[in-house]
Amino acid sequence: MHKQTALIHDPKAAPMDINTMQPPVYHASTIIFDSTKALFNRHWTDRYDYSYGTHGTPTTYLLADQIARLEGGQHCLLTPSGLSAISLVNTALLTTGDEVWIPDNAYSPNLAHLQQLQSSYGISIKIYQPQDIDSFMPSKACKLLWLEAAGSITLEFPNLPAFIHKAHQHGAWVALDNTWGAAVAFCPFAIDTLAVDISVHALTKYPSGGGDVLMGSIVSHDNKLHQRLLQTHSVLGLSVSGDDCARIYRSLPSLQLRYQQQSATAQQLMHWLKNQPQFSQVLHPANPDSAGHDAWQKLCPSGLSSGLVSVVFDKRYRWADVCRFCDALRLFQLGFSWGGATSLVMLYDIKKIRSLPQTHLQGDYVVRFSVGLEHIDDLTADIAAALLVLNYDEKVAQP
Ligand SMILES: Cc1ncc(COP(=O)(O)O)c(C=O)c1O
């Protein structure tokens, strides 16, 4: 054999007999078959009949199985981002004439994807008020109910069991965006009390924890439903890289401890923020004044509540003031996302992103803090210093 060929056709099997803390990472688009018999007898839906990289490798299945266990479901599909997990669910389950319900405080790209499906295929989108079960009025055409607990940005916590019960009574599937709970705050597949059909999770946030990987997961229980999602996953060619899976897998052992710490710090921050006169409201499920506090208490008796805390600026402040406040923060970095070690901040004009009247909000300008793993005293000092740039007379409470 020529050296040129030998360099390609080496045995490729390293001496094994080694046990490492982290599992080996498979990088594969092509998977080699032993024979034509093996090639034609395989079936790609059988997960261990490895066919091609897009269908999965031992590395992707390792992470998928761990996420399924974490969420308490049976099956897990991995997608290149949390948003692609959401859009896969919409694409797989909705067709012309179907009705889908989404909360007004949902992660807004979900609604944007549904609007695309509406104009291409004629589905019907209904928006409900997450605090009001009566605003969810499914018709016979209802196929899918989206839930988010707590909701994006304003963090209202819905009565999940009531919504799930009503949707199931009408024969609709229930999909929960479980990114906030991260499968740590509560279990979405607790059959007796809370049984969603699908839990979607942006692994980008808490499971990754590093702000450096994008990935989503779709966990389900029912075999038929999983097969339907799997077919769509396959034809869309949604694959994830082995290296990204390994990064998330490596972060999982610390997930619960990080989440607990971030919840505890966020609750301390919530209490401190309540004493600042610049804010008319502090939005956080553990705050007794927040919408859905009772529902959160029932579902999360452990008291976990993620690292997100939002504030509503008092009406006397203009948008430019809110921008100046965010620009003045030093530890809270201005950036989308959450769940990592570095605290983040983002600002929103709520009336631009909601469809229904927000009767419980005492202002339009909302700033969402995503608490990282820094010390609470440093975080409150950062906010106290940034509030000074507002240059009004209020006394900023000492951290
Ligand atoms: C609640 C929620 N769901 C889903 C996503 C989408 O995740 P990704 O950024 O991985 O697409 C996000 C992202 O911010 C989110 O906040």
UniProtKB/TrEMBL annotation:
Domain of life: Bacteria
Keywords: Lyase, Pyridoxal phosphate
Pfam families registered for this protein in UniProt: Cys_Met_Meta_PP (PF01053)
Cofactor: pyridoxal 5'-phosphate
Keyword Lyase: yes
Residues with the N6-(pyridoxal phosphate)lysine modification: K205
GO biological process assignments: L-cysteine catabolic process to pyruvate; transsulfuration
InterPro entries linked: Cys/Met-Metab_PyrdxlP-dep_enz, Cys_b_lyase_bac, PyrdxlP-dep_Trfase, PyrdxlP-dep_Trfase_major, PyrdxlP-dep_Trfase_small
Reactions catalysed: L,L-cystathionine + H2O = L-homocysteine + pyruvate + NH4(+)
Gene Ontology MF terms: cysteine-S-conjugate beta-lyase activity; pyridoxal phosphate binding
Family per record: Belongs to the trans-sulfuration enzymes family.
Protein's name in the database: Cystathionine beta-lyase
The organism's taxonomic lineage, starting at the top: Bacteria, Pseudomonadati, Pseudomonadota, Gammaproteobacteria, Moraxellales
